[in-house]
Amino acid sequence: MNGLKPPKPIxxxxxxxxxxxxxxxxxxxxxxxxxxxxxxxxxxxPVGGFVCLMLEPGTRVSHMAVVLAARAGTLLIWVGEAGVxxxxxxxxxxxxxxxxxxxxRLALDEDARLKVVRRMYALRFNEEPxxxxxxxxxxxxxxxxxxxxxxxxxxxxxxxxxxxxxxxKDWDAADIVNRCLSSATASLYGLAEAAILAAGYAPAIGFxxxxxxxSFAYDIADIFKFETVVPEAFRVVAAVExxxxxxxxxxxxxxxxxxxxxxxAFRRTNLLAKLIPxxxxxxxxxxxxxxxxxxxxxxVAIIDEPGIGDAGHRT
Length: 315
Description:
The protein has helices spanning 63-72, 97-108, 110-125, 135-157, 176-198, 215-224, 229-241, 254-268, 271-284; strands at 16-21, 24-29, 32-36, 42-44, 50-55, 59-61, 75-79, 86-89.
């Protein structure tokens, strides 16, 4: 690997979304990015073709594997079982100082922050938020609507529902619907974080969510949550509770099935092509201008270049 020219990262919109890996050694062998299991069986992973890799318990990573993932612009995320607890994440390409300053100015300016939150609300609910409401008030309104959405989806699919609740320290204590929802949203949060980093921003500087390492990732992911992953989780749970197949498939592992269906939903809704434009959209709503990048600034990690064909053309 020494002396090789770093590969040009594939634009996010042209990649597969996410891959969960567990119980194996990630390494680079004979120039290939591979997962080696306990029996020595190698599984080749096209690392540059994924937005992020979720590394579950039992996964070990070599230094060379981390180097290749960074060069390919693929985010590595170390998570707990089913991806519901984040322990650490890489940062492909590095954040941009001018974009970090821009994001921080928006978050620190009360008027600008409110404008950003109002734009996120409008995108999420397809309607303008109530006038003359603070960020805290909009957070309360949004929370009430989200709780109602969960209740309505449970009724629509015939799923038993009490509330959205789980303890990341005790995964097995949650009921099946909350486990599937947690796994589904974890996949979406991973994609949102990867897009934020690729665009040069910081996942921790949020607007509606604050105080967590992924606050901005939660902000962006929540815009798409109810049109992508949440319905899929309820469909899987409904099939399990009603003891019937789903799209011809008998559900043996609800969490794994939810992950696969979320992956398909990302592709069906063209989510990867929407994430970075949405990030720029909500930030521009703040009304502040981005500072000019100094000459020595690093470029954006993954440039969102136009493809050579239409949206259905695989390059």
